[in-house]
Every structure is written in structure tokens, then in C-alpha cells.
């Protein structure tokens, strides 16, 4: 696969050649994934409720459905230290060299006893590949009208603080890369966050940024309850425990429609968490699998009607069956003509 890159000056003042924006071939769909997304800790990852191989399972289901294969999926590069400095502070990135800091972010306490080089290889490197995939998805969406990163959506991480299994601020990075490199095409962005949790990371990063509109719909009774970050939300919809399909889908459609009337973005970043699924012990909502599929269809439909390029990130989802639901949703988007070659 060929690639292209641009010079830029990082926050450190040093010149850097980024390899994130790789090119795609005509036969490839803008669906982004590589095997390195998956997390392996020699079994330690099982101490966290998250399915550490979720991304590989999504890809396998899509492959079984003949929607993608190894040749048609787009493989991103790993985001590099200098790329991360476009958003992250050097101090924060340095803090990831200490295993106890990473253990707090990943919410896996035994990680603090693991040598950092193993933590880097087993957890942070996969997250850097997924972050590279999110940034690349922004560029591909401009070119193809849509893009789906089978990973990413680390919405609890800000420029100087990680948390909630989110070590890198991929959403902030995605938007900032577009503002930096595609400023002739992208001067405004909308973030639609339908993960069950408040997206406090990028909200902290985009507080007082009038060119970034945030629509966040989340369960207000669970983590992170970040009141400071809430100030950045332009359309805030707070749900109660065990909200079901009818109320949920009505609020998605009504509020997304009103958001797009208020604000006309050059790109829409959709954080499509599946932790809203009924039975998810961390999301504590009660949305069915068909409800999630319909939700994703609504978001893509609203964006495509207005010819707004859309990026989808898979974000949270803590049940083993969420991989199947995500794959089924992507297949549905294809079947109804909302994504195509």
C-alpha cells in the first residue's frame, strides 16, 4: 500500500514527517483494521470486563460475510510520539512509561507489577495502532464520504489525562489532524457521542472551541460524571438507567436532527459505543441489538442526506456479543446503501 505524508512542526518545535495518512486503493473499502489492534497480556486482560479481542472478532464476522478481507481492508500505521504531540503534552506521554500509571488508565491493577516494556508491547502499542486508524479515518472520510475504524473511540482521554481504558486522545487527534492538514476543507467538526458514558476527554480538549459542536447522549448515573467537561457539550442528553429502545431512538433522531440544523459541520465524528446494550453492566442501559443497528443507520442517514463526511469509531462495549452486533450493523449500513465502494 502506498502512502503520503506531510511535514509539520510539532509542539516541541521539531520537524516531523507523519506516516499516518496512508493512501487507499480503489478496490478497498474505507474500513480500517489490522491484527495489531488486539490486546494480549498473557491472560491478565481477562481481569477487565472489556473484550480485548473485540476488534478481531468484528473483522472476522465481516470477513465471514464477504464484506471485507485482508486485501480490501485498510491497514493503518502506528501513531508515533511526534504525532501524539500535536495534542498530548510531553509530560503525559512520559507518564505512560510507568506501569502503575498505565494500570490506572486501563483499570487493570495487576498491570502495575508488569515491566513497562511488556505493557508497551501488549497494551499501548495496540492502542497506538487504533489511534492511527482513527486519524486515518478522518482523511478517508473526506475522500470517500465515510470511513469506519473497527477500533478507537477513546473518549475518556484528553491531552493530559487518560482513563476508562483510554490511553490516547484519538478523537481529539482525528479532529486536530484535519484542522492542521485539511484546513482548506475542514474548518468545523461535529462529534456525535452515543456511547453509554460521557465523552469527557475530548470535551475537556474542545472547551470553548466554537468550531467543534458536541452532541453527547449518555447515562448520567455512571462514570465519569465530569461536570467541568460537560460545559463543552452543545447538545447534552442525559439518560437514566435502563432506558429502552423507543425512548432512546426517538431522542437520537430528534436531537441529531436539531443538532444538524443548528450547526453545519465539514465532518461528523460518530462515537458508536455498544455499551448501551441491554445487560452491559457498565453502561446500565437496555437497548436491544436491533436498536443499536437502527441507531447507527439513523446517524449515517442524517449525515449522508446532508453530504457530510462521517467517521465511525467503535468505542465501548463490554459484552462478548457486541462484536457480532457491530459487524451486523456495518453489514446493514452496506445493505441499505449508506456505505458502498
UniProtKB/TrEMBL annotation:
One of its GO terms (molecular function) is histone deacetylase activity, hydrolytic mechanism. The keyword Transcription applies. It is found in: Nucleus. Residues 48-326 form the Histone deacetylase domain. Its EC number is 3.5.1.98. It catalyses: N(6)-acetyl-L-lysyl-[histone] + H2O = L-lysyl-[histone] + acetate. GO terms for biological process: epigenetic regulation of gene expression. It is an enzyme of class 3 (hydrolase). Signal peptide: none annotated. Pfam families: Hist_deacetyl (PF00850). Keywords: Chromatin regulator, Hydrolase, Nucleus, Repressor, Transcription, Transcription regulation. SUPFAM superfamilies: Arginase/deacetylase. CDD domains: HDAC_classIV. InterPro entries: HDAC_classIV, HDACs, His_deacetylse_dom, His_deacetylse_dom_sf, Ureohydrolase_dom_sf. GO terms for cellular component: histone deacetylase complex. Responsible for the deacetylation of lysine residues on the N-terminal part of the core histones (H2A, H2B, H3 and H4). Histone deacetylation gives a tag for epigenetic repression and plays an important role in transcriptional regulation, cell cycle progression and developmental events. Histone deacetylases act via the formation of large multiprotein complexes. PANTHER family: HISTONE DEACETYLASE 11 (PTHR10625:SF23), HISTONE DEACETYLASE HDAC1-RELATED (PTHR10625). Interacts with HDAC6. Belongs to the histone deacetylase family. This is Histone deacetylase 11. It comes from Zootermopsis nevadensis.
Amino acid at each position: 500500500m502506498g502512502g503520503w505524508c506531510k511535514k509539520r512542526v510539532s509542539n516541541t518545535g521539531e520537524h516531523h514527517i507523519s506516516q499516518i495518512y496512508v493512501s487507499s486503493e480503489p478496490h478497498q473499502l474505507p474500513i480500517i483494521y489490522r491484527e495489531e489492534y488486539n490486546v494480549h497480556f498473557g491472560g491478565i486482560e481477562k481481569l477487565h470486563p472489556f473484550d480485548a479481542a473485540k476488534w478481531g472478532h468484528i473483522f472476522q464476522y465481516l470477513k465471514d460475510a464477504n464484506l471485507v478481507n485482508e486485501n480490501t481492508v485498510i491497514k493503518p500505521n502506528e501513531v508515533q510520539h511526534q504525532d501524539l504531540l500535536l495534542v498530548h503534552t510531553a509530560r503525559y506521554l512520559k507518564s505512560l512509561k510507568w506501569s502503575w500509571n498505565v494500570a490506572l488508565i486501563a483499570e487493570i491493577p495487576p498491570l502495575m507489577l508488569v515491566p513497562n516494556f511488556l505493557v508497551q508491547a501488549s497494551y499501548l502499542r495496540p492502542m497506538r495502532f487504533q489511534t492511527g486508524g482513527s486519524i486515518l479515518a478522518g482523511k478517508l472520510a473526506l475522500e470517500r464520504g465515510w470511513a469506519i475504524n473497527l477500533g478507537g473511540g477513546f473518549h475518556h482521554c484528553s491531552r493530559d489525562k487518560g482513563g476508562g481504558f483510554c490511553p490516547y486522545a484519538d478523537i481529539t487527534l482525528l479532529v486536530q489532524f484535519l484542522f492542521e492538514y485539511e484546513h482548506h476543507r475542514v474548518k468545523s467538526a461535529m462529534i456525535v457521542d452515543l456511547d453509554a458514558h460521557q465523552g469527557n476527554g475530548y470535551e475537556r480538549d474542545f472547551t470553548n472551541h466554537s468550531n467543534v459542536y458536541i452532541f453527547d447522549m449518555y447515562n448520567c448515573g455512571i462514570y465519569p460524571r465530569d461536570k467541568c467537561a460537560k460545559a463543552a457539550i452543545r447538545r447534552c442528553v442525559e439518560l437514566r438507567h435502563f432506558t429502552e429502545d423507543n425512548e432512546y431512538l426517538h431522542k437520537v433522531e430528534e436531537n441529531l436532527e436539531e443538532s444538524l440544523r443548528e450547526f453545519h459541520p465539514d465532518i461528523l465524528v460518530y462515537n458508536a459505543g455498544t455499551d448501551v446494550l441491554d445487560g452491559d453492566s457498565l453502561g446500565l442501559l437496555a437497548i436491544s441489538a436491533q436498536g443499536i443497528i437502527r441507531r447507527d443507520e439513523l446517524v449515517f442517514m442524517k449525515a449522508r442526506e446532508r453530504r457530510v463526511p462521517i467517521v465511525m469509531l467503535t468505542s465501548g462495549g463490554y459484552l462478548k456479543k457486541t462484536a457480532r452486533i457491530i459487524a451486523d450493523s456495518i453489514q446493514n449500513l452496506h445493505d441499505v446503501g449508506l456505505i458502498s465502494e
